[in-house]
Specification:
Length: about 325
């Protein structure tokens, strides 16, 4: 009885790597059709049928697209709604997954993908991933990646342009002392919002005052502390741009605690346009980023990859727009 054919025999005969054979027989993403056919022909010729049978369950598509999230919060909730709407008339189901981080935020997407890919999901959409090269063998699209563009498809909003528009809006209302509550330093989109704020001031001939720049990190208590330091001062700003809506709402709460009226004493503008922004007693002026559209575009990019189509664009940036409501007003008086 001859020796049993191994995966190494198949790889050598087909002129490909062992990992390529594994991907081909398991129906994984990333192998050209001609290569898949060559591998499968070699499998039949060499009698590697037992491995095909053993892998048949793994080779089946699950019909599920996973959305991997670091946290469930307003931004990711809107993303999920967009993905769900795009999947409505398809044969795919949606799995929203936020694994336990055990205190370690860095690399959470790699751990999640290793648990889900190839068994529970056919493709993944990662929301604000810390890395954009997770090494997955399934199609992956990143939304608002921490480190920016890389070798996989990405979708993001124009954070720089939106921040510029927010700051310009306040300048056009006559404000010169404009505070900024920044987001998380590790997020590229947050850095771009910081850069947009600074560029708008520079273009208007206004120097950045370090005492008017605080770090909120998109965390409520940190934002409150920074806002209180900024507003409880004789040289406080007359307006504040916060890097997201939840931070802007926290600034408004601190202003009220200090006896400041919004927008009479302090104009406030946010970024995102989460549902709560328009539902407040004093609706929030903000920069609207198309959160649901981000999710829908990411889903469309996944569908294209699963069907073998080439993407029109690897990196998509969607426009933002200013939404003026009740928390900003023209500066009056001598301040």
């Amino acid at each position: 009885m001859g020796a049993r054919t191994t995966i190494h025999d198949v790889a050598k005969a087909a002129g490909v790597s062992v990992s390529t054979v594994s991907k081909a027989v398991n129906g994984r993403y990333g192998i050209a059709d001609a290569t898949v056919q060559r591998v499968l022909d070699t499998v039949r010729e060499l009698g590697y049928e037992s491995s095909l049978v053993a892998s048949s369950m793994r080779a089946r598509r699950t019909g599920v697209i996973g959305v991997l999230l670091a946290d469930f919060e307003p931004f990711s909730a809107e993303i999920l709604k967009g993905v769900g709407a795009a999947m409505h008339d398809t044969a795919f189901d949606l799995l929203a997954y936020s694994g336990s981080h055990h205190g370690a935020r860095e690399g959470w997407e790699r751990r999640s993908l290793s648990r889900l890919s190839g068994t529970l999901i056919d493709a993944a959409i990662m929301v604000t991933p810390t890395v954009v090269s997770p090494g997955a063998e399934i199609p992956v699209v990143a939304i608002d990646p921490h480190t920016g563009r890389a070798d996989l498809p990405t979708v993001e909003s124009d954070s720089f342009g939106g921040a510029y528009a927010a700051t310009r809006h306040l300048i056009d209302l006559g404000h010169r002392r404009i505070g900024f509550l920044a987001g998380r330093p590790d997020l590229r989109s947050a850095a771009l919002r910081d850069a947009g704020y600074r560029r708008a001031l520079s273009d208007a001939g206004i120097l950045v005052d370090p005492s008017l720049v605080g770090i909120g990190r998109y965390e409520l208590e940190t934002t409150r502390e920074s806002a209180r330091l900024m507003l409880d001062s004789a040289s406080r700003p007359t307006a504040v741009f916060a890097a997201n809506d939840l931070s802007a709402i926290a600034v408004i709460d601190v202003a009220h605690d200090l006896g400041l009226r919004v927008p009479d004493d302090l104009s406030v503008i946010g970024f995102d346009d989460v549902p709560e922004a328009s539902r407040r007693t004093l609706p929030l002026t903000t920069i609207q980023q198309p959160m649901r559209r981000l999710g829908a575009v990411a889903a469309e990019m996944v569908f294209a990859q699963l069907s073998g189509r080439e993407l029109d664009e690897m990196h998509v940036t969607l426009p933002t727009r200013l939404v003026v409501r009740a928390t900003t007003a023209r500066l009056t008086g001598e301040r």
